[in-house]
């Protein structure tokens, strides 16, 4: 994976990422508080092992390592959608971030 920032701006990028994560935790809670505890971590690792490539990148003719397990239909706390593996897809972090932003209005997008 390539770095997002040149050596001159790498430290500033780390600071921005830390600020973003702190802000996310304040508004949404920790991963565990949102239902992504040890059970999720275990199942996520198993899923990524059996689905190692990003589905969105594959659709675009690229082979990219998957790093995130996405809920195709956002679960919004619904345990049935949360744990239904037919509602999961493997994505790279970039594709997952783009999809999530589109769904929740991030990056100035309207909410779907």
Structural class of the helix and strand makeup? mainly alpha
Instruction: Return the domain count.
Output: 1
The CA-CA distance between the termini, in Å, is 30 Å
Largest sheet: 2 strands, antiparallel
- Number-wise, the strands total 2
The share of residues in helices is 40-55%
Radius of gyration: 15 Å
Q: Write down the overall mean pLDDT.
A: 85
Query: Which sequence of SSEs, written as H and E, runs from N to C?
Result: HHHEHEH
Shape: globular
Order of the strands making up the biggest sheet: 1-2
- Beta strand %: 5-15%
How many separate helices?
5
Uncertain stretches of 5 or more adjacent residues: none
Region (Disordered): 1-35
Pfam family, one: HNH
Protein name: Putative HNH nuclease YajD
Keywords: Endonuclease, Hydrolase, Nuclease
Can you offer a commentary on this structure?
The protein has one domain (10-108). Helices cover 48% and strands 7% of the residues. It has five helices and two strands, in the order αααβαβα. The protein has helices at residues 10-28, 38-50, 55-59, 79-83, 93-104, and strands spanning 68-71, 88-91. The chain has a two-stranded antiparallel ribbon. The mean pLDDT is 85.
Task: Quickly describe the structure.
Residues 1-35 are annotated as: Disordered. This protein is mainly alpha-helical and 112 residues long.
């Amino acid at each position: 994976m390539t770095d997002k920032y040149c050596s001159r701006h790498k430290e500033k990028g780390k600071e921005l990422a830390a600020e973003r994560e702190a802000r996310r935790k304040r508004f949404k809670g920790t991963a565990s508080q949102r239902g992504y505890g040890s059970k999720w971590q275990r199942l996520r690792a198993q899923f990524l092992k059996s689905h190692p490539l990003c589905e969105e990148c594959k659709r675009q003719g690229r082979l990219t390592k998957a790093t995130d397990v996405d809920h195709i239909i956002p679960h919004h706390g619904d345990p049935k959608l949360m744990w239904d593996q037919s509602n999961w897809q493997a994505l790279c972090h970039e594709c997952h971030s783009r999809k999530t932003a589109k769904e929740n209005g991030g990056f100035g997008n309207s909410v779907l």
